[in-house]
Amino acid sequence: xxxxxxxxxxxxxxxxxxxxxxxxxxxxxxxxxxxxxxxxxxxxxxxxxxxxxxxxxxxxxxxxxxxxxxxxxxxxxxxxxxxxxxxxxxxxxxxxxxxxxxxxxxxxxxxxxxxxxxxxxxxxxxxxxxxxxxxxxxxxxxxxxxxxxxxxxxxxxxxxxxxxxxxxxxxxxxxxxxxxxxxxxxxxxxxxxxxxxxxxxxxxxxxxxxxxxxxxxxxxxxxxxxxxxxxxxxxxxxxxxxxxxxxxxx
Length: 250
What we know:
Strand content: 15-25%
Strand order of the largest sheet: 1-2-3-4-5-6-7-8
Shape: globular
Distance between the termini: 20 Å
Number of helices: 9
Largest sheet: 8 strands, parallel, barrel
Order of helices and strands: EHEHEHEHEHEHHEHEH
């Protein structure tokens, strides 16, 4: 499993850089603008410059409305600013068809600029609370639009978590559908170290966290600390090893 960490600015990104050996992707977002709130282009550029060159930087485009042209421009802006993973939160898409239209525009805009960029269709485990597309529809949306990965997060940060809205077996079905479609699968949403055993069993490719590596476990008032990143990674790797040891072979 890969570990994605989401700093909220350049100072936290510098702390991520100190823990670079323990994480795989640095994810730029602006938490006060939503679950997948978009940060400024210059912040993306500064974070790209702050972390090691070999460490991928992802950027969220926002919890976007059903406005395909607007979203395509925003996604291109993130790519031009230095992000190689572009995440789009399909917040305002009520149907799979709307979501596919938005993501097709993003894929074209981003890949025409940089063919090796990685486009991520992002949905929400608590979709029922905001009226957007069903989480289990997301892998097919990503496949139909030419995206590279599908991720589930939580839209409303009120203390509820990924597994509060989707039981582990449903998350496992999401991952299976993504893999069947040839996509990477990612899971996030107030993930804690206690969830890592289930996530290893589920077989997700990427785990996204913020609060779990912040002081006090608080994504809003706490700050990411390198020693917390290192501890989370060690726990994650332990669960992956343990699952591999007991998983059936062949």
